[in-house]
Specification:
With 387 residues, the chain is an alpha/beta fold. It is built from 16 helices and 13 strands. It has two domains: 221 residues, Glycogen Phosphorylase B (Rossmann fold, 3-Layer(aba) Sandwich); 148 residues, Rossmann fold (3-Layer(aba) Sandwich). The strands form two sheets. It has a seven-stranded parallel β-sheet with strand order 3-2-1-4-5-6-7, sandwiched between helices. Strands 10-9-8-11-12-13 form a six-stranded parallel β-sheet, with helices on both faces. Helix 12 links the parallel strand 11 and strand 12.
Length: 387
């Protein structure tokens, strides 16, 4: 099939969960013999080596756009009667590039990666080309959770309401919407009864190399973030609440934070965001995924499974995965429970070995690339046949 993919960012390098999900999807489509043209905005010219890597799976077409301030986005949102985040990602140059691509080489289907990318697909609707929207998460639910988390973020609840309206319109307009989890699919169906919505998890390889070992007995690895607030909050929770208890209970333990804002605390080692993803998954370490706000799938959990690290995650982080605490990972929602889980793994190496083996089996069973790519292509074909 000829697929035009419209995204909000280039997926390589895959340095966040959203990029990684799209990158692995493009790999699967390329391996199955499908032709994908990718249009995405960029704020600076991409690195030549990165473009070469992208060309191994698709025909990348980066579109240079200026970075838009939140103030200008707010004005645009009022003018367009849309949500702030959709207005911030809407760029006339990207829409023009999509329109030109439809005219020059009409695709069988347009794949819009995320609600914000759909803003550039009006020309596809007008031309009768079916649009399949993939929602990596329920955006309105995320903003509502952040709005409830802290009083100073309360205005975000109004943005969540506007996002719900945008999501409902998008779901009704698209030929089909693909969610990454059944949980998200259920939430989206409630927003737009009657819309075609399916759940297809992202593909993920069952095994990947781990990084070089890091000091600590045990060493623990957590991803820092300078961007999305829930990720920063999870890292801060680890540093401020878990690390002191951990140091008191297991003085030789070390919490390694990769990326985000510089942190300094006893028993905590901060590292710059690594260029090589495996660096953030040191061999022999325990992966912590301490999110308290989330939707979609935590790609970091899947990556830890693949790289052979036992995982301790909050129930929010693990939501959407069909996993059981004690089988593929350990669930811990409080600092005390997290330290207790670390103690279990440190005291019983066979438990970590079992979790790692079951995590790898989970990836083979639930995230096989060939199987999930075939499911996604079936959605494309059905949309094209209905057009």
């Amino acid at each position: 099939m000829k697929i035009l993919c419209v995204a909000t960012k280039l997926p390589w390098p895959p340095d966040d969960g959203g990029r990684l999900a799209l990158w692995l999807t493009l790999q699967g489509l390329a391996a199955a013999g499908h032709r994908v043209r990718l249009i995405a905005p960029v704020h600076a010219p991409p690195d030549a080596a990165d473009l070469a890597t992208l060309r191994s799976v698709c025909e990348p077409q980066p579109v240079h756009v200026p970075q838009r301030s939140w103030a200008r986005a707010a004005a645009g949102a009022l003018r367009q009667r849309t949500s702030l985040t959709v207005a911030r990602h809407r760029h006339a140059r990207v829409s023009a590039a999509v329109e030109a691509a439809l005219r020059d080489d009409r695709p069988d289907v347009v794949h819009a990666e995320q609600l914000q990318a759909l803003a550039h697909c009006d020309a596809a609707h007008a031309a009768g080309v079916p649009v399949v929207l993939r929602m990596q998460n329920v955006e309105s639910d995320l903003w509502a959770q952040v709005g409830r988390a802290r009083w100073r973020f309360a205005p975000l609840r109004f943005e969540a309401a506007r996002l719900r309206r945008d999501e409902a319109r998008a779901l009704a307009a698209c030929a089909c919407t693909v969610a990454l989890t059944q949980r998200d699919a259920h939430a989206l169906r409630a927003l737009a009864p009657g819309a075609r919505i399916v759940a297809i998890p992202p593909p993920f390889p069952a095994t990947l190399d781990a990084g070089a070992p890091r000091p600590g007995a045990p060493a623990l690895a957590v991803a820092g973030s300078a961007g999305w607030w829930p990720n920063r909050q999870g890292t801060r929770w680890c540093v401020q609440h878990v690390a002191p208890l951990l140091h008191a209970a297991v003085s030789d333990a070390r919490l390694h934070v990769f990326g985000g804002t510089l942190v300094a605390a006893r028993g905590v080692v901060w590292h710059r965001a690594p260029a090589d993803a495996r660096t953030a998954f040191p061999a022999g370490a325990i992966a912590l995924v301490p999110l308290h706000i989330g939707s979609g799938i935590r790609m970091r959990i899947l990556e830890a499974f693949a790289r052979g690290l036992p995982v301790i995650a909050t129930s929010t982080a693990a939501a959407g995965l069909q996993v059981v605490s004690g089988r593929e990972l350990l669930i811990a929602d409080t600092p005390e429970a997290t330290v207790a889980a670390v103690g279990l793994l440190a005291g019983d190496p066979s438990l970590g070995t079992a979790l790692v083996g079951n995590g790898s089996d989970y990836l083979r069973r639930m995230h096989d690339s060939a199987v999930l790519t075939a499911e996604l292509v079936a959605v494309y074909r059905a949309a094209a046949e209905r057009a």
